[in-house]
## 1
Amino acid sequence: NAGVTQTPKFRVLKTGQSMTLLCAQDMNHEYMYWYRQDPGMGLRLIHYSVGEGTTAKGEVPDGYNVSRLKKQNFLLGLESAAPSQTSVYFCASSSRLARTDTQYFGPGTRLTVL
Amino acid sequence: ILNVEQSPQSLHVQEGDSTNFTCSFPSSNFYALHWYRWETAKSPEALFVMTLNGDEKKKGRISATLNTKEGYSYLYIKGSQPEDSATYLCALSGAGGTSYGKLTFGQGTILTVHP
């Protein structure tokens, strides 16, 4: 049981390049989330999904797109990377049936945009 | 947008010291309060979830209390050890099913325990 996994773990991009971060969970969770973590800012929600084929904007969605074609996968895309997107990105998932909304996190992807 | 504040931003203690830090939130908008521990290079890991005023939770040397009427939660660590060094995050979740499990996080308290 791997829980939540993220690919890749590290990436360096040049300004204007594109990339996709992959999140996979094997807990059959309905809800999935993408966060970014910056020093002194806590975790900020970028986009989230409440089920296969659905996505919604979070607190800081600009510059990112997402897709949830399969229940177990949630992809985060950067179409044209900017230095302001240098951050650590975390994916998380939770169960629709869990009363207390506990989220389970992946190990993070450290992205640097030069 | 919920405003979740944590203090202090960082804390340095000596091994064996007991310590505590605070999470503040709007008392009028509450469903559940979460504490997570995030060690460097690892995933944030859930410590506690509390929903009722007066709730107290304990896991080993770490405990937490909740006061929903005044809008705060305390996290206590008794006899801190170097392995307790981490960022401690608190988060608020909204009204159950209508919030789709979304959490609003505070900025975290970075704890460093010196041997």
Note: Chain A has a mean pLDDT of 93.
## 2
Amino acid sequence: GAVVSQHPSWVICKSGTSVKIECRSLDFQATTMFWYRQFPKQSLMLMATSNEGSKATYEQGVEKDKFLINHASLTLSTLTVTSAHPEDSSFYICSARLTGGSDEQYFGPGTRLTVT
Amino acid sequence: KQEVTQIPAALSVPEGENLVLNCSFTDSAIYNLQWFRQDPGKGLTSLLLIQSSQREQTSGRLNASLDKSSGRSTLYIAASQPGDSATYLCAVSGFQKLVFGTGTRLLVSP
């Protein structure tokens, strides 16, 4: 149980284009989902907290107009990287917290974004 | 602001050794602490979760302890195997947020 999927697992896009990454909780409902970014050989950094039906809360230094987050249902959150640049190339990982459950987060397998 | 540090940053051991990974955090007001494993280019695998009221958790060859007052946790791996080679991350849970440590890259050689 508590499986989280991400799509796509990897994507290559050209500079200036936009890319959408999906995060789904497959067998549970998640009121809250989280988006993390991980640069090579570094740890995970929280980008934003996404609550179903409301606006996401972004961490300091994360541009909300560049990283658009939508959490339209209890099983799906999307992250859109707008006007991507090479410096946005990174590993993006989402997690989901079980609605009404403990504080534990369940992580997706990640999406590797490469911007050329 | 919570800061999480892991020591050592990298560790190389021969197969069969018992080893200890360390995690320290600056703010003791945490809900829980988790240890994760991450293989290269992959997502996270949760290994152990210790609630703030607990002192330790065990799963197979893994044992994690938590000393909240001193801001420390250790992950003990018994009889290490080459398949244990990965990066190990600890993360502490504050109000709705997980703060990750810097990670320990473990290499277990046959």
Note: The two ends of chain A are 37 Å apart (CA to CA).
